Amino acid sequence: MLESLGIGIGVAILGGALGGLALELQYRLRPAMQLDVTAKEWNLEVYEPQRYQIVGDVTLRNPLSRFEIMVPEMQCQVTLLSSASLAGITSTIQIIPQHPDAPARADNYWFAYIVKSGKTTQAEIRVEILGADLSHLQAAWIQIRYVTYSPAGRESQVSHVVVPLQFPTPDTSQRWRPTPKADVLPIRTHLLTHLDHPVEVVRHYVLPHARKGDIVTLGETPVAIMQGRWRHPTQIRPGWVARRLCYFFLPTSSLATACGLQALVDIVGPLRVLSAFVIGAVAKVLGQPGMFYRLAGEQARLIDDVTGTLPPYDQFIVLGPQHSQQIVDQIRQETGLSAAIVDVNDLKAVKILAATADITPAFLIQALRTNPAGNADEQTPLVLIRPTDPHPPT
């Protein structure tokens, strides 16, 4: 009798443990209760000396097949970036819901809306900027804050849009800088954002300076920014691996914070990061440093943590670019210029992420060794290279 009771209790405990484990596994594997938010169509519809008006659309899509997500709140905030004081400059924001099945209220109140599974809704955002002289404004950083309410609870979310407000005219009188086998020309652009495309930027800013045989290089961080590959730390949730391993990296590393390292974990997975760390630590003891970055993948070297680039992206973690070879090949095809995407620093280190087939790496490295684009706020993400050697690279 007692033996049977003991077996029954054991089975009950085991069943409870397995049930609890299954419930926990189901919880961890369930999809994230988040909306897919895109903000691609933004235009500077009024661009007058004393008045700017920015109009953009935000699309919210529920990717879940079973669950509904409610959006009870949406608000916007704008931060203006300027080369002069903002005194006397004001901005106002209007959010106009554009739900497919419910008209917007006349008082602009955002009423709680249900985004059904697989469905989308939109909102139009209007930003008006007024001032006696707006010529010093460089960009508007728009933060779209919204609340989701779902089986996961009430969660605050934020999406970011950067809209340039200053557009330099290509200056053909800019000074070229000599190097042993080429002349180089850093080219200033507007503040690049996810609203830009590398080909169009090259066409607008580089072609007025270029001639046959020139090479254009693009910085890897500006390319990543144009691809929208930047994340605010509030959007990143560091896990076990990132929180524990980040302390072992040098303070100057972009992986030395939990959010910076988690950005890499989100790309390649925790197991690869942990394995690369363990093997890298052993290799370092044996006199072979740098093994972690080789094993963890290219993104480990390319991530820029907070403060790693110019405002307002200094507030974000910027990932490395994607599809780099496709981009340079497209630039070559559509503009006729040879092209490369590079990572250059003030320590004379030049890393070529991708280059068209007609570029000799050694020539490119020598031309860029002095880092003509700079690492501060020069806002010169493009460098035009003109070979001066009688035998240019082929």
From TrEMBL:
The keyword Transmembrane helix applies. The chain crosses the membrane at residues 6-25. It comes from the Bacteria. Keywords: Membrane, Transmembrane, Transmembrane helix. This is F420-0:Gamma-glutamyl ligase.
